[in-house]
Specification:
Strand content: under 5%
Distance between the termini: 37 Å
Helix content: over 70%
Structural class: mainly alpha
Shape: elongated
Largest sheet: none
Order of helices and strands: HHHHH
């Protein structure tokens, strides 16, 4: 059980770390911090909502939600590793556009790139709750995973802001 609680905490660290890193990458792609933050937050919430909805529906028929949770986290990790290259490629494609071009096209392209990883992140919450329900019972099934994930997210913000982004030069 401690491994499960640790996984929920680490998932929170990673989730907000991704979001803050993607804001910086999108700032480079879209050419502006305000647009990048707005786009990232909007896509992050939309993807999380979509993923949570879809994940809840898919997990209703699963007997082993912990396995689904592990698969989701592995998929998120793989996509997160590929995302900088994808956003870099997107930046290269969009750099040939005239400076007077609309921001709509790059905004939609960036949003499309971020939708999959954010949907996967959203799907982890129903998987966490279903897994916790099996392990800890119904009374702690939603609050404990959410609390641990939120604490991890707070730590992720600190680590990324103070160490990770400066180390990447972002």
């Amino acid at each position: 059980m401690p491994i499960l609680w640790t996984a929920f905490f680490v998932s929170g660290v990673a989730g907000l770390s991704y979001e803050l890193t993607w804001v910086r990458y999108l700032g480079q792609v879209l050419g502006g911090a305000t647009v990048a933050v707005s786009a990232t937050v909007a896509v992050f919430f939309a993807g999380m909502a979509l993923g949570s909805w879809a994940g809840g529906r898919m997990l209703a028929s699963r007997r082993r939600p912990a396995l689904a949770y592990a698969a989701l986290e592995a998929a998120i990790g793989l996509v997160a590793l590929a995302l900088p290259a994808m956003l870099g490629g997107l930046r290269g494609l969009l750099s040939t556009r005239p400076a007077t071009a609309s921001v709509v096209e790059p905004l939609l392209a960036s949003s499309a790139v971020l939708l999959l990883p954010t949907a996967l992140l959203g799907a982890t919450y129903p998987a966490m709750v279903a897994t916790a329900r099996r392990v800890a019972g119904p009374t702690r099934s939603a609050a404990l995973p959410y609390g641990l994930n939120t604490l991890g997210a707070m730590l992720g913000c600190l680590l990324v802001s103070l160490w990770w982004l400066p180390a990447l030069g972002l």
